[in-house]
Write a structure and sequence with these properties.
nine-stranded mixed sheet; about 30% helix; binds N-(aminocarbonyl)-beta-alanine; eight-stranded parallel sheet; alpha/beta; binds zinc ion
């Protein structure tokens, strides 16, 4: 099987040039001008199109038992949505709760994905308690190719770890040479504030942000950074949402802490007034950390453009309106999360690159190359180079669209970005050389996606 993509403009995190790309089987084997097409080779004319490396979403939830319910997507629906949006690899959070066995959970998550994903995938392994079995279990999981951990400093008694468990996890992570990702909010303070607000009769979605204010996220971020500094481990803050948390993360970076930062699409574009809407309209926008005051947006965009925010993920986590209504009487019962795997690339391109807030190469870096480097996928993924997997996005910059739940592929009955106009879209998307999306429609093979085994990176993280 071979494929020749002619006349496109290749854009990576570092370069921009016109060339043809020749693919044999799953791999890019030649890049050059006016390449010949052998007999039987499919030829795509990409004149006027931009060719990006397949985008990587470093933070998604697909199978997720959480807050008395389950996130809505399956690996089939989420991976089709991902591909239509230009994402060719996602890294899913494997999240057994504190009460469950970590190894059983790991096998369960892998079974759910195997044979059902249309794009490639990997996992971050959540460590939700640390006991006498944890070290041997985590060693087996890392040996299996899952070389990144996840800890939650929030969600007390469910996913959350205490400081001692965080210390043990980071100490082991340092020894194994793996990176630890962390949700940074202070669980005790959130719990106290939630109880206080409910006792005052403040039960609506608008109170969610008051129960998890910016200082509580800044405290969690600072504590995580301090534990990284003390243990020498490599860390990654997920879904950073506000300036105070950004400030402590940047200070930690400046003093040499091995820390990278992710923000997610909602925190660049949406704000807390959405959660103040009446009834389920407000509940749609409940996630943690919560949507913040708009004043944070400029700081996040500037930090992203400067590379102080390293990556942009989605924290894709769909719950439908009936599920959101589980919290009609108390905001603490609203399942936390909104989807975004389908919209990330188009929104960050439209709102970032086209509006002059985000350099084009930094866009590719934050949404593809940097996640590949940090999580052990580079140069197999995250770039366009001879020898790399042929995961390519042939992007039509002239396309104009409007986001709507009526046309989305994510399994949900609303879209948090409803009505947003988009400029450009992935027109053709390949996964290891096979065309999975054509003219913006999924035309591919549902089970094509492979589990990506990743080596620990030790001292060589690409920060
Ligand atoms: O609200 C969110 N973020 N839901 C998903 C779970 C998590 O914290 O990432
Ligand atoms: Zn989280
Ligand atoms: Zn998450």
């Amino acid at each position: 099987m071979s494929l020749l993509i002619r006349n496109g403009e290749i854009v990576t995190s570092e370069s921009r040039y016109h060339a043809d790309i020749f693919i044999e089987d799953e791999t890019i084997t030649h890049i050059g001008r006016e390449l010949d097409a052998p007999p039987e080779c499919e030829v795509i004319d990409a004149s006027g199109k931009t060719i990006f490396p397949g985008f990587i979403d470093p933070h998604v939830h697909i199978y997720l038992p959480f807050m008395s319910t389950f996130a809505k997507d399956t690996h089939k629906t989420a991976s089709v949505a991902a591909l239509i949006g230009g994402t060719t690899t996602f890294i899913e959070m494997c999240c057994p709760s504190r009460k469950e066995d970590a190894l059983d959970g790991y096998h369960l998550w892998k079974e759910k994905a195997a044979g059902n994903s249309a794009c490639d995938f990997a996992f971050h392994m959540a460590v939700t308690r640390y006991d006498e079995d944890t070290e041997s279990q985590l060693r087996r999981i890392v040996n299996d190719g899952t070389s990144s951990f996840k800890i939650f400093l929030s969600y007390k008694d469910f996913f959350g770890v205490n400081d001692d468990e965080m210390y043990q996890t980071l100490t082991l992570a340092r020894r194994l040479g793996v990176i630890t990702t962390a949700h940074c909010e202070n669980a005790e303070l959130v719990d106290r504030l939630q109880q206080k607000l409910l006792a005052q009769g403040k039960t609506g979605a608008e109170w969610h942000e008051h129960s998890r204010p910016e200082i509580i996220e800044a405290e969690g971020t600072n504590r995580f950074a301090t534990f990284l500094e003390t243990t020498g481990a490599e860390g990654y803050v997920v879904h950073l949402s506000c300036q105070p948390a950004l400030d402590v993360a940047v200070q930690a970076k400046l003093r040499g802490v091995r820390l990278s930062v992710e923000s997610v699409v909602p925190h660049f574009l949406l704000d807390k007034t959405l959660a103040e809407r009446e009834g389920v309209e407000g509940r749609k926008y409940i996630m943690s950390p919560p949507l913040r005051d708009r004043r944070n947006h400029a700081a996040l965009w500037a930090a992203l453009d400067a590379g102080l925010i390293d990556t942009v993920g989605t924290d894709h986590c769909p719950f439908d309106l009936a599920q959101k209504d589980l919290g009609a009487d108390a905001f603490t019962q609203i399942p936390n999360g909104i989807p975004g795997i389908e919209e990330r690339v188009n929104l960050m391109y439209t709102q970032g690159v086209r509006k002059g807030r985000l350099d084009l190469h930094r866009f590719v870096d934050a949404l593809s190359t940097k996640p590949a480097k940090l999580f052990g996928l580079f140069p197999r993924k995250g770039t366009i180079a001879v020898g790399s997997d042929a995961d390519l996005v042939i992007f039509d910059p002239e396309y104009r669209g409007v986001i709507s739940c009526k046309t989305q592929h994510t399994n949900n009955d609303y879209n948090g970005f409803e009505g947003y106009e988009t400029e450009g879209r992935p027109s053709i998307v390949t996964v290891r050389g096979k065309i999975q999306v054509r003219d913006g429609e999924f035309i591919g093979e549902h089970g094509r996606g492979k589990f990506l085994a990743r080596e620990p990176l030790g001292e060589s993280y690409g920060r």
